[in-house]
Amino acid sequence: MKSKGLISAIVLLSFSIGICYQASRYPFGTVSKIGPGFFPFYLSIALAALSFIILIRAILRGAEEVSPSATGSITKEKALRVILVLIFSLLYTWAMGRLGFPIATFLFIVGVFKFVESYSWFLSILGAVSISLSSYLLFGVWLQCQFPKGWLGI
Amino acid sequence: MDNLINNLYLGFSVSLSLTNAFYCFIGVLIGTLIGVLPGIGPTATIAILLPMTFYLSPVTGIIMLAGIFYGAQYGGSTTSILVNIPGEVSSVITTLDGYQMAQQGRAGPALGIAAFGSFIAGTLATFGLGIVAPFLAGIALKFGPPEYATLMFLALITATFLGQKSMPKSLAMVVLGLILSTIGRDTITGFPRFTLGILQFEDGLGFIPLIMGLFGISEVLSNVEEKVRGQIFATSKIARLLPSLKDWRRSIGPILRGSGLGFFLGILPGGGGLISSLASYIMEKKISRTPENFGTGMIEGVAGPEAANNAGAQGSFIPLLCLGIPCNATMAILIGAFIIHGVQPGPLTMTQNPELFWGVITSMYTGNVLLLILNLPLIGIWVKILKVPYSILYPLILLFCVVGAYSLNNSIFEVYLTVFFGVLGYIMRKIDYEPAPMVLAFVLGPLFEDALGQALLISRGDYRVFLNRPLSLGFLVAGLALLAMSVISNLQKFRSNRMKKVEEGD
Q1: Are the C-beta atoms of A19 and B176 separated by less than 8 Å?
Q2: Chain B residues touching A19 at Cβ < 8 A
Q3: Cα nearest neighbour of A12 on chain B
Q4: What is the ipTM of this complex?
Q5: With a CB-CB cutoff of 8 Å, which residues 63-82 of chain A face chain B?
Q6: Deepest in the core among A71, B255, B309, B388, taking most CB within 10 A?
Q7: pTM score above 0.80
Q8: By residue range, what is the domain housing residue A19?
Q9: pLDDT tens, A27-52?
Q10: Domain span at B199
């Protein structure tokens, strides 16, 4: 856990330095009429101070309390499932802009059912057809969401 | 009193209209559903369904979203009692005695008293809201920018208590949320800040992608790690739902006490839900003549906490409706919903938007009646829903997130942003950072900056403006005292941990 605390503190610290630098380039204004740079500048200082405290605590380690919800150990299999779901979600987003909502949804559901959940091809396709069709009827037809048009013109 | 009756009359005329009652029903139905289903909570659901309410009027949309929130408290208790799995965090306490009752063949009375207890608490809390809200809004009307700025400060400090983890980390999340809220054009000068040259950032970072990612997608990513297929729970048989006269005699005290305690704890920042039900359980155990029997199937241990968590859920609407300050993550999302619908919740809501204000309050009563009807006869259906495997559920949740994020501005960019925040939220969970304080700060950020700027403008840059006004000074002192208390308790914990380490080393 020590390294996680350390890395997160360093990331936060670098982020706050970046924000501080950027905010210092904005008009600061005066105390009676604060400019756009005033608020973010002081916030970045506060964040830097807090990340410094987190950093010190991580180094001293003593106070690094880990709650049970932070499931520290992540096995290869777990990571693979998360990464696969994430990749499918990104591909879904990408495909929605090009193939249209129903086709993208169909491919997304087939992908998740088949490759993450290892359902049979038959079940995956059946599930994907019913979900993509019903979601299109719900969102596209009933709620009239303006989805990007794909190959099929829907 | 006359005023209260008039206001409630106005409220009921709004909330009982056909459209509003229908959407209230939909809200509590969805609430019960997700309350029953483990793995998805009301915060994530409200975040995901928020874009769907854009097609509705503000009052209808808010009534539905509020219904999801308190409906989930009901649903959560069903699974706690029947299968020992709390559908919601706030129902954890109910598992202690509720499940034991079910094991002894008394699942029916446990479910019955949970539903009636919640209903009585909901009814009392509705009246409580009607009495306390105008009083508090009256005080809040006297607020100027300095009071608002210091109140926001107090709210942001208390937001760190929403995180039950490390205090510096929670505070860092609050500051990060404030920084994220500055993205986009400055409200006064129109100066673009941190837009990275991206056109979509000029209007600010989207609230919907932020909450859908942090609560919706990240929750899915965390749950998806484990492969769980077709879990079948062994459920106890439900014979008779209505509690006996003896059950009622034992329960009415805990229900009334739980309602009062839960309501007032709900008003406090970070309160409501779990804290209310826990406090009620502890209280009932303390005043019981047989405290040793708690945990073995005492009906008091179900009635009190169930009443408390429902009253707490409604009490948490008070800071939102009267001060425009959310006291938990769900309320932070609801405040976002108000703003998106063009209503700025605060002390003026009651006078400027009485239909909305009283409509939402009375809809909770309507909702409680609907929940009672939904929960008792339909309990068999809710139990069956438990059998829907998560492997089917989560692709649907992701689908809702994608559609919701897209339909906001018909923009694929917002969907990518949602996925980005989903990953960020997942990583945050892994390394023990909580998203709730960040979201709260993100919502309050622009209000805080505006109030601060205005306060300094009217005082011509004199910081003493925050000290010279009694209310503002009070908020400031309260905020600093909370901060100091937190720092001291953290230091003590730190020291005792070090001591332990040193002793172990010896």
Answers
A1: no
A2: 179, 194
A3: B172
A4: 0.90
A5: 63-67, 69-72, 74, 78, 81-82
A6: B309
A7: yes
A8: 2-60
A9: 888 888 888 999 999 999 999 999 99
A10: 2-502
